[in-house]
Amino acid sequence: MRNFQARIYFIFLLSIVNLHAQSKKYIIHTIAFYNFENLFDTNNDINTNDDEWTPTGTQHWTEEKYHQKLKNLSRVISEIGTPENPNAPTIIGGSEVENRGVLEDLIKETKLLPFDYGIIHFDSPDKRGIDVALLYQKKYFKPTSFSNIPLLIYKNKVVIKEEKKEETDDELEDKTEIVKDNNRVFTRDQLLITGFLEGEEISIIVNHWPSRSGGEKASSQFREAAGRLNRKIIDSLQRINPNAKVFTMGDLNDGPFNKSIKIALGAKAKKTEVREFGIFNPFEEMANKGMGTIAFRDSWDIFDQIMMTESVIKPDYSAFTFWKAGIFNRPFLVQTSGQYKGYPLRHSQTEVGFSDHFPVYVYLIKEKI
Fold first, then answer.
1. pLDDT tens-digit map of 55-77
2. Are 72 and 352 in contact (CB under 8 A)?
3. pLDDT tens digits, one per residue of 349-361
4. Displacement of CA 120 from its chain's centroid (Å)
5. How many other C-beta atoms are found inside a 10 Å radius of the C-beta of residue 56?
6. Would you say the C-alpha torsion 8, 14, 17, 22 has a positive or negative sign?
7. Rounded to 10 degrees, what is the CA torsion of 300, 303, 304, 305?
8. CA distance 145 to 92
9. Cα 87 to the chain's mean position, in Å?
């Protein structure tokens, strides 16, 4: 009889706890990243290699196709993060945008106009003229500073270690990098934005790391340099504020297991492995499950990622805290037939698609007072 009473009491207690949990309400925001894949206007820019994305170029890029591309992208952006969050992303980083003008056209699309997006963009030295940028809902996010930080990488780099000719052994000179013929590899800058999300300071780095042109191994050094620059930026923010909430996002042209992310940036797959000032990467677990944002020769990888500092994953719901992450791969974004069935539905000569990448997103939540 006593055991029966104890069980009834436990069930009663459990129901009270569940009722209390269900009564809690949270503020939710979606932060996303999307490689827009060749978001070019139809004008020929004499300073960049954009000739193919013109009416007379190989892509036969007309005003009609351009505006269909904008319509397609606006649909995707408006739906990222639903249904858990009915609002479009509060913040979305983008890559492969030609200039500010295409972003201004994008946010004027019918599906995005109600969200009143602002734009942060800089022209980068990329030879094709493609840049990274940030869109943000002005109602919720207030930028306070932003800058573009160049990634300086070179081919034919020679590293020489010289030793000072002093009597003591501890006065060895640091490695000196000598660049042969100043053969710089021009790539996208890293865009750093700091601002207030509903009164709470956060920082975002938007990336599009160097491609795998020339092969994955041969080009890995350039992405590793990008990872080190990312780490340097984050370190500088954490020196100013040890509790800085920093998100780094982008098309990294490397998956979660590559050196640029695991070693240069130092990202960890599990929250329990992330130490103070460390980086958490929720997309590594997805990669372990065979998920992907981009496909090549029927092999999937997650090049598009959003990572965050340890301060974002603390279980303190009185401030904005990471809830969960996802890949936005709705059926309408997927090729349904042909050689590339199952791949992201990208642009072709016969169809204006979306992108060759799926977008990614994370949710931030905070308990309502």
1. 999 999 999 999 999 999 999 99
2. yes
3. 888 999 999 999 9
4. 15
5. 10
6. negative
7. 110
8. 17
9. 19
